[in-house]
Amino acid sequence: MTKKTTRRDFLRRSAAISAGAFVFPHIVRPSALGLGGVLPPSDRVVIGSIGVGSQGMSNMRDFLALRNAVQFVAVCDVDTDHLTRAKETVDKANGNKDCRTYDDFREFLEKEQLDAVALALPDHWHGIVYTEVINKKVAVYGEKPISRTIEDGKTIVAAAKKNNTLWQTGSWQRSQPNFHRGAELVINGRAGKITHIEVGLPDGNRGIGTPPIQEVPANLNWDMWLGPAPKVPYRGVVHWDWRWILDYSGGQLTDWTGHHVDIANWGMGMEYMTPVEIAGSGVYPAEGLYDAPVEYDFRCKYENGVTMRVANSSRLELGMGTTWHGDLGWIHTDRNGVLTASDPKILDEVIEENEIHLYKSDNHWQNFVDCVRSGKQPIAPIEPAFTACMVGLLGEIAMTTGQTIKWDPEKQEITDNTRASRLVGRPYRKPWTLPTV
Amino acid sequence: MKKQYLIILFAVITALFTACQSGDVYKTLILTGQGEHNWKYSSSALQQIFDEAELFKAEILNTPAQGEDMSTFKPDFSKYQLVVLDYNGDSWSDETKASFVDYVRNGGGLVVYHPSVKAFPDWPEYNEMIGLGGFNGRDETSGPLVYYGMEGVVVDDTTEGPAGAVEERADFEVRIQVNDHPVTQGLPVRWMQANDVMLTNLRGPAKELQILATNSPRMMYWRRPGAQPPKYFPVLMAINYGNGRVFNTVLGNVDDGSGVAMQSVGFIATLLRGAEWAASGSVTQEVPFDFPTAAGPVIRTGFKAVTLDEAFNRIGSYETGSSSTKYMTFIRRQITDAAGDEKTLLNLEKKMVNVLKDANATADAKKLILRELSWMGTDYSIDAINSLSSNPELQEMVDFALTRLQAN
């Protein structure tokens, strides 16, 4: 299945496919300048970023921290302040003034010839941009959650499968030793047969009321930022804080399922298994612009009998993180290196050579670069990321409708529930449409 | 034989009467009349809150004024199922004190409202009933400082010092610490109280005391190394005293004149739940839709809860930014709660369609309604939605709604 692919294969392949349709203004590859790095310049991954706000810049810094592994050549954002900042960072790293800037991802994709693209956009843009980027047949480092809706996610995943996209999700917890160790202990039965998983995610954000309508700052293309989401006047809530508004995000819930539910599934070997039944309730702010649930608590049932409770951390005994409950005890893992168990001896267990060894990566961004060079599958592929995201999205539908949702994993649809089925997608504002695969 | 029938008839009537009394409405006495606070306002506010809930019938009794003869003050507590203390003043007569102790000890319900934690510093039984108190000369001899520490453990701190401190008036976060108690079951774990004065450093015998909720001085997720561990001071307390139950709330300070703290839904709803528990041992009230969350406090102007009719009356004039969003939140909650009940859902849908048809309803209101109908609507809505498609302001949301409705 995994065909060894080199970067040159990538280039050849993408060039062959797109040569007829696209102009290549940058024939001299910037990496050929070879800035005296450890690696030959031809091995440097040529990369561009779409979305260079806080998360996009954080990823850029993590990539740049890998000495001479990547060369950024182009950045794209709807906020020119972001572009200026990103270009400064890239130019400084490259020792030149050549980083190209775009305020429209379509122009970026038309003009740029890259090995890889890093994506960090608000969730409501994922359906369009992720799919278009995948269709360009480049390797992708894409932020979680995979999508705002189930429909968007299905399209993105279908496109990635069709294009055999080399994909790394920004679920970097997989590259942290405590999460890896916790998941490996679980998958090798050190907590016994797991029957129940508890996943604690952050409580929702403080509200801000409804701020007055403001003039859109000159640096921001507000209409483009909104994109497929309903048109609303600008109220000063944009970068970062879009997370608390349901038009753009499912809140902490759908954001963080991409981390802790992903880890839960990894340890269960359930990375490709979606729940079949979802029920629960959410607490929504009564007042203000922010409408994402601030508390939530729902249960998922899986075909194999396993149950998973997903709740805001204040409701759970062990708070944030993933807890697997098995017939021999529990194992809990969370950020800041947390790895605990009902019996500390579990944590001393040795995983023998003939047992299951989960994919190991010490650095999430290096892993991506290594895979782009080798053609190997990265540690956080797209489908498991969507599986994790789906838990949050189905939970959201269960909470909105107040009903027990039945999901058919084969057909990838909600069974016998018209109202809930309408919530698997969100109609796009014209002229935007979800791209075809 | 006849006599037996009469006895049975009498018994049935008595049983029915008792059932009506205890099952429907709790006879409640609000006891006030003295204090540094505006007790005239607060006691009347309490009465409105209790009467609005339709679970209590509250009457107000004022003690003699400060300095006057207290020997005449002899209420018959046994007539009530619940006594609410809104009092911080002169000591009562020994006889009245004894009768009050008997009332609680024999199973009477007691709610201790904010200023009352200051009252009666030298009355040992009272201090036991309220669990923790402060001010008026209380100090370490009154008992330990009791609070939750960083790790969610109750600390009995015997350090010397005065009992009772006052935080600056502010919105502050309340954190439920015990969520399987009837009073707190089902409430959001973290929620905002509006414009209130937090009382901290309370001390007392703390016997049979459960701290149900505390304030929440900071986010607990990122535990910064070297940071002083925060103290989570009690906000809501449940105390068992003899056969009686006591609910002690330090929320609802009235002294700013606006009464916003008392109109805060967090205060109102926990007061009513605490009162029902004190009177009966259980809580039948549902968590109201407007119960606040960590996202922010919620106010009930005039202490009144939103009704369905009111929500639909108010939604028509909705303007984003200047109107409260709570009426739409209320309607959404009705839809979620009606899951599976097609009759109720159709009724809600009809009311929503009426807003669409209402020429006086704002575009912002219709946009909200269209969004909701997009997923919960039936064929009933289609014509009304279509008829809005010529309105350029609504065009986009009409498309949004029809796309969803017609896809499934």
SSE arrangement of chain B, N to C: HEHEEHEHEEEEEEEEEHHHHHHHH
Under CATH, the homologous superfamily of the largest domain in chain A reads Dihydrodipicolinate Reductase, domain 2
Low-confidence stretches of chain B: 15-22, 219-224
For this structure, the quaternary state is: heterodimer
Strand order of the largest sheet of chain B: 2-1-3-4-13-12-11-8-9
Number of domains of chain A: 2
- By CATH reckoning, the class of the largest domain in chain B would read Alpha Beta
- SS content category of chain A: alpha/beta
Number of strands of chain B: 13
Number of domains of chain B: 2
Percentage of residues in DSSP E strands of chain A: 15-25%
Uncertain runs of chain A = 1-39
User: How many DSSP helices of chain B?
Assistant: 12
Specify the CATH architecture of the largest domain in chain A: 2-Layer Sandwich
What is the averaged pLDDT score of chain B?
Answer: 91
Q: SS-based structural class of chain B? A: alpha/beta
Query: Secondary-structure element sequence of chain A?
Result: HEHEHEHEHEHEHEHHEEEEEEHHEEH
Cα radius of gyration of chain B in angstroms? 25 Å
Give an overview of the whole structure.
The complex is a heterodimer of chains A (437) and B (408). Chain A is an alpha/beta fold and 437 residues long. Chain A folds into two domains: 7-173, NAD(P)-binding Rossmann-like Domain (Rossmann fold, 3-Layer(aba) Sandwich), CATH 3.40.50.720; 176-209 and 229-351 and 380-422, 2-Layer Sandwich (Dihydrodipicolinate Reductase, domain 2). Chain A is 32% helix and 18% strand. In chain A, the strands form two sheets. Chain A has a nine-stranded mixed sheet with strand order 13-12-11-7-10-9-8-14-15. A six-stranded parallel sheet of chain A has the order 3-2-1-4-5-6, sandwiched between helices. The longest helix of chain A is centred in the C-terminal third of the chain and has 20 residues, at 382-401. The two termini of chain A are 21 Å apart. In chain A, 51% of the residues are buried. Chain B is an alpha/beta fold and 408 residues long. Chain B folds into two domains: 2-299, Rossmann fold (3-Layer(aba) Sandwich), CATH 3.40.50; 306-407. In chain B, the strands form three sheets. Chain B has a nine-stranded mixed sheet with strand order 2-1-3-4-13-12-11-8-9, sandwiched between helices. In chain B, α7 (308-315) crosses α8. Chain B is elongated. Classes of the chains: A alpha/beta (437), B alpha/beta (408). The interface between A and B is large, with 47 and 44 residues.
